[in-house]
Amino acid sequence: MANSDKKELAKQLYLHTDKHLKDIAKMVKVSEKTLAGKSGWIKKFKWDQLKAAQTTTKDELIRNTYQQLLDIHNTAKEEKRNISSKESDQIYKLGAFIKVLEKEIDLGVIIQVLREFELYVLKVDEGFVTQVNEYTTLFIHSRIDV
C-alpha cells in the first residue's frame, strides 16, 4: 500500500471510528509515532480539529444551549421566584448565541456533505476521487484556519 493510501486510511479510521491509535497504526502498518508523534499526521494535518468539528455539531450546541435556558427557568420556578438580573443577562447571551449558530453553516455539516460527494464521485469516476479528496481536504483546512 502506498504511503498516501496508508495516510488516507489512517485518517478515515481516526476520524470515523473509536479505534485506539495503536490499533490504527497496526492496521495501516505505520508506527504510532507516524500517527501521533510530535510531527505525526494527526498534528501535521490537523486531524484533531477535524474530529472535533465532526463531534461538536451545531445541532448539539443548540440543544445544549436550550437546555441551559430551560435550567435557568426551572431553577427560578422551583425556588418560586422571578428570574434575577444575572439570569436575564445569561438568557439574553444564550439567545444571541443560538441566533448566531442558526445562521452559520457548521463545519461538521460541510465535512459530511463533502464526504458524501466523494463517495458519489468514487462510484462515478474512481480515478478522479483522489483529486477530489485533495481539494476537499484543502477546503476543509481553509475553513478551520479562518
Molecular structure report:
This protein has 146 residues and is mostly helical. It folds into 3 domains: 45 residues; 53 residues; 46 residues. Helices cover 78% and strands 0% of the residues. The protein contains 9 helices and no strands. α1 packs parallel to α5, α5 crosses α8 and α6 runs antiparallel to α7. The protein starts with a helix and ends with a helix. The model has no long low-confidence stretch (mean pLDDT 88).
Report the sheet-strand fraction: under 5%
Can you count the helices? Answer: 9
Count of domain modules: 3
Report Rg: 21 Å
- How would a crystallographer describe the biggest sheet? none
Q: Stretches where pLDDT falls below 50 for ≥5 residues? A: none
Helix-strand sequence: HHHHHHHHH
Q: How far is it from the N-terminal to the C-terminal residue, by CA?
A: 34 Å
Number of extended strands? 0
Q: State the helical fraction.
A: over 70%
Q: Let me know the average pLDDT.
A: 88
Shape by Cα distribution? elongated
Characteristic terms for this protein:
elongated; 146 residues; mainly alpha
What does the secondary structure layout of this molecule look like, with pairings?
Elements: H1 3-16, H2 21-28, H3 32-36, H4 41-44, H5 47-55, H6 58-78, H7 85-103, H8 107-124, H9 129-144
Helix pairs in contact: 1-2, 1-5, 5-8, 6-7, 8-9
Brief characterization of the structure:
The chain has 146 residues and is mostly helical.
